[in-house]
Write a structure and sequence with these properties.
The protein is of the alpha/beta class. It contains eight helices and 15 strands. The strands form two sheets. An eight-stranded mixed β-sheet has the order 1-15-14-13-12-11-10-9.
Length: 290
């Protein structure tokens, strides 16, 4: 039977309307903060996809979907972000790169260093057009150094990152992130995909999309159900499954119960706004700044 973790500032007596919150996961040497976890578009209580990985000396942002840039500044100053990884070029995973570029271009303290952005091919042009219709605009190029992702492994700061292509209508990469013997796997957006098993094998935490609930006539090759996320977690032998990319029109309780039918380990739903570090929430920084 799954161990379902219910953590949060509010609780509900109604099983069908619970508040089930585990928004950040603390490793011994690296902290993961879930900045946003809403699927497809921002929800009333969450930006779209965004995750901050902080080793103490290096800060990597995974995805920067619409609505996430403001919330990200609760946890890190934008000038302290060392690198960005974008899983794919759908708006709910990358659009707030435009706002990030505006900050870097126009902040009174100056542009600062160009940050590496690891993304699918064409990201600079795609995001440049979203930033400005002016073909001569250089804001995106001047702010960031874009590096095309490919399936394989690379070092990003002190982190070992392994990528694999996922099953989604646009080029999409899932990530396996390793640091000091700890492993996080992130599915990004995907339909059923064998490569997810390889990325997640033996991971301490699988952060897995669960956009769909069980039902007839679900679109193929787009997203996973919560039950399928549980099945991948079980087959990969992960220590903990956190369901993310939660679409606002779905009820959360069935997502948990359906995943629990397939996975008997620790299981929770992602939620933004809380950090877990040594059992305490340090809260937002007093001054995030640029």
């Amino acid at each position: 039977m799954s161990r379902i973790i219910l953590v949060g500032p509010d609780f509900s007596d109604d099983f069908y309307h619970p508040v089930t919150i585990v928004p950040a996961l603390a490793w011994m040497t690296v902290q993961i903060t879930i900045v946003g976890c809403a699927g497809s578009y921002p929800a009333p209580d969450s930006p779209a996809s965004c995750y901050l990985i902080d080793t103490g000396s290096f800060r990597l942002v995974i995805d920067l979907g619409n609505g996430a840039l403001g919330q990200l500044q609760r946890y890190v100053s934008l000038e302290e972000v060392d690198a960005v990884c974008l899983s794919h070029l759908h708006a709910d995973h990358c659009l707030d790169m435009c706002g990030f570029s505006v900050v870097k271009t126009h902040h009174p303290r100056g542009q600062g260093r160009r940050i590496p952005v690891y993304a699918p091919a064409g990201a600079q042009d795609h995001l440049g057009k979203a930033l400005s219709p002016d073909p001569d605009s250089t804001g995106m190029r001047d702010s960031f150094s874009f590096i095309d992702l490919a399936a394989g492994s690379l070092e990003i700061g002190p982190l070992r990152v392994t990528t694999a292509r996922m099953n989604h209508p646009v080029e999409t990469f899932g990530f396996r992130i390793e640091h000091d013997g700890q492993v996080l796997a992130y599915s990004a957006d995907t339909g059923p995909e064998p490569e997810l098993l390889r990325l997640a094998a033996g991971a301490d935490v699988l952060l897995c999309e669960a956009s769909f609930l069980d039902g007839p006539d679900l679109p193929p090759d787009l997203h996973l159900t919560a039950r399928q996320a549980g099945e991948y977690a079980a087959r990969a032998g992960v220590g903990e499954l956190v369901l993310t990319h939660l679409v606002a029109w779905n009820d959360r309780a069935p997502a948990l119960s359906q995943a629990a039918q397939a996975f008997d380990g620790e299981l929770s739903l992602a939620s933004p706004g809380r950090r877990l570090l040594g059992g305490a929430d340090p809260g937002a920084p007093e001054q995030a700044g640029y």
